[in-house]
Amino acid sequence: MPHRDKAQIMTEDEMRRALTRIAHEICERNKGIQDLALVGIRSRGDILAERIAEQIGKIEGDKPPVGVMDITLYRDDLNLFDRKVTVNRTDIPYSIDGLSVVLVDDVLFTGRSIRAALDALTDFGRPATVQLAVLVDRGHREFPIAANYVGKNIPTSLREMVAVQVMEVDGEDTVVIREETAA
């Protein structure tokens, strides 16, 4: 179904400020970066995780390790017979055992992606804690999941979609609300 942009909810500067604030909050809550790692969920969370790690590096003088996770095969709405499924590589080049891991995603909606990420993460080890950082929390939870760090809370209707666009993939940094349009 086609969509149209309804409203811009974050500009490039607002995204940068939100990620900088999240980086400060992560440092404060974890009392620095010792035993801290970030894991970004593909396909925008990984880019945001890298940006947060860069900001943490500016704050703390060193940046925490960053991994990338593909949760495709952990999703509960995946039907391998209905469509072609593309699975990207998960790359967590360090042991997560005993670390405080911050999962990073672009949009928190029903909580199903985060549940899948938690399942995937446990296949890589046993972290001391798992925290969640999201750029946008749009509500409508189906699982009892809440983010520890939120760039912006955006109340939305179920007919709307929140699209995070990043320079590395989309050629611009912005967050927009899209709504379905009649064909």
Topology:
Blueprint: E1 3-10, H1 12-30, E2 36-41, H2 45-60, E3 66-69, E4 100-108, H3 112-122, E5 129-137, E6 149-153, E7 160-165, H4 167-170, E8 174-180
Helix pairs in contact: 1-2
Number of strands: 8
User: Whole-Å distance between the termini?
Assistant: 7 Å
Per DSSP, the total helix count is: 4
Number of domains: 1
Taken from the alpha-carbon principal axes, the silhouette is globular
How much helicity do the residues have? 25-40%
- Oligomeric state of the chains in view: single chain
* CATH class (first level) name: Alpha Beta
The whole-number mean of residue pLDDT values reads: 93
What does it look like?
The chain is of the alpha/beta class and 183 residues long. The chain has a single domain (12-76, 86-158), classed as Rossmann fold. It contains four helices and eight strands. The chain has helices at residues 12-30, 45-60, 112-122, 167-170; strands at residues 3-10, 36-41, 66-69, 100-108, 129-137, 149-153, 160-165, 174-180. Strands 3-2-4-5-6 form a five-stranded parallel β-sheet, with helices on both faces. The model has no long low-confidence stretch (mean pLDDT 93).
